[in-house]
Amino acid sequence: MTDSFKMDNIPFSLLDQQEQALVNTNLDLAYFQQGEKIIAAGDVPEGVHVILKGRVRESEAGEDQQHVYVHYENEDYFGGWSALRGRAIHDFIAEEETICHILPTRILLELMQSNALFADYFQQDFAVKTEIAAQHGKGQDMAEFMLSKITSATIREPLIVDEGTSIRAATQLMRESKADCLLARKGGRFGMVTGTDLLDAVVLKGLALDSDVSDLASYRLVTADPDDYLFNALVMMTRQQIERVVVMSGQTLVGVVELTDVLSYFSSHSHVIGIRIERASSIDDLREAAQGLNDLIKALISTGVKIRFTMDLLAAMNGRIIAKLFDLVIPVDMQPHVCLIVMGSEGRGEQIMKTDQDNALLFRDGLSWAAMQQVMNSFSEQLISFGFPPCPGNIMVSNPEWVNSVGDWTQKLSDWAETCEGEAQMKLAIAVDAKPVAGNQALFKVARNWFLRHLRNNDVFFSHFARAAIEFDTPLTFFGNLKDKAELDIKKGGIFPIVHGVRTLALEHRILATNTYKRIEALIESGQLQEKEGKEISEALSLFVQLRLRQQMRRVEESDDGFDPTPNLIELQRLNKMERDLLRDALQVVKSFKKHLTLRYHLGG
Amino acid sequence: MIIPRTIRRLQDRRTHKSGPWANLFESYDGDEVVSLDCETTSLEVGQAEILSIGAVRIQGKKVKTSDRLDIRLKPPASLSGESIKVHKIRASDLVDGIELEDALEQLLNFIGNRPILGYYVNYDIRVIDKFLRPLYGFGLPNKAIELSHVYHDIIKWKHVGGDVDLRFDTIASKLDIPIIQRHTALGDAITVALMYVRLKHGQSPSHTH
Hints:
- By secondary structure, chain A is α+β, with helices and mostly antiparallel strands.
- Chain B has a five-stranded mixed beta sheet, with helices on both faces.
């Protein structure tokens, strides 16, 4: 029709030129007074309404109008569902003077028939919508290269030798084929031998040149599926500190992916930072390496790496920094008797910017180490100097409350579980996301397993613990207020309910994973969540985290001191139409998840 | 200007009462209005040539943009630098334009005997009449509704002792109506239609600036 109708807004952007022309010639404009009912429940709507100017609320039918479902405003569309269903089940009322474009139902149906993607967008649930939006959006959350899989392009043909091949022959072969590793076959298994292994064997161990290479090989291969993302291979290499990953399709060997090949895909040198962390021989070296991390995150975000992968990589990096610092600060003879754990978002592997330190130390019952607290204080101080801000709740090892023997720790956990008081519940929520990062992990596992057993079938606890997830209202009626300085606290409104709800479910079903996405996957697998529901929750969480991150980074850049005082704030007017749409849908997902929790844990009333 | 036109209309009506365009002269009793706008080469009726004509029907509170007239004409010889600056229409934009005769026929069929709404609508009607009369022997017989008068009538009670600002953009912003494709005939016709619907059916505009 005219430029007043934005064809580049999803879902109309999914239409081809001819279909858009059809929309163009069939739109009408309608004017509604403030308070006028645009569509009344039970009416047959004329078609989809797209707001040119104004604000509309969708609310429960009836005179009292108490429950408002959603607000719509500029460029939003409404009435699509009602048009498809034939009749509206809610009232749509102009909250202020409103001008709408109207696309007749007849044309809508015609378009849905000719364009499957458009039809999907109108009919499908949230997870499908985000996928369509991601594919057709400006690629904000996924760059092309991030989607590259470990397929043929980067897989190298492995050099395979049989058992009995001598070191000399193997070296010769590697030189000829310019490979720097080979796979030795022993029985039905493959083992990896690298150039370094050969060197070590001959020079350091003094083995004869005719010894069998298959004896040098390492048979615990780190493998990846060819359909996996290349980025995951990089995370794997970073985490395991290796330079190649064997690609296996089921039981069949496909080839080897080398670090250098992967790196050539990524402009930012995550592994380089990883190596620097590993080689750091002093705290100063380590600090310098840690500071390179911020640039890496920025690079990843700006190239559009999917948020979950970024979190994975960052969690791996942060974990290694902390582990390395632990190595440097804790005396070697004490290391086997203590275990450093990270908790909260760090434990879940979900922090993006360097978040507050949430850490604790467990030590063997009866350990006597006089200088322990003093060492812990300096540990916390060092982390602060690395750019990990101190925890405002003082949940860190410099606080003696968080330095415990295994016995005291389990006692604390069960004490917290028995009180209904808010602070104890919060501490518990943080503690159950704990993950060991350095020292003797067995200490941690003993405590955790004891606690999970302890909670078994304690319905009263779970019901109480779950309640926090439904405490904050889902801010769905926020959207109308864009004209005012509309902001919402995305942590309260979206992130926390998901994370805490999933945490509760995971705890109840004794799922060991701490990462929310992995917990969701495990809950789906064990049948506690429906697959569709689980996927939607994951997508919703990713969306919240991503929107939050983008606004955080902008605020950090605009501030003088590089500090964002309102990290959980989403300013709605900075979102585009598509993001607002998705945000609204994601909040709907949160709402129905909360309903699920309410039923599951009898939280109603 | 208004009185001569009224007299002429009576004359035309007598002459064409039984002609092929008789229905144009019947009095209109429906609830529709046609919002009309022309882009021309000059603001002097005598020199003006029509470049494009846009029109939409208004039906109650609805602007039927799906049923609209959006005509571009063949470039007239007089297409000058001055008007190009206003409309951003160059001769090359009008290469697909149609002949004036065809345009007028489409226009008459579209408007029928409905009232014509516009912003300074008499100007548009006079320009159209200038070309219509030699071909058909009559001018547009329709009732004319002047948007700025409708606006003025509603606003003046609140504006004691002051002149009312009747500029297009001022009216649009007072009424909080988005301006749609300014300086295209169709865009202006739609904007005027929305302003009219707003004035007819909405509350009277507030006076905050």
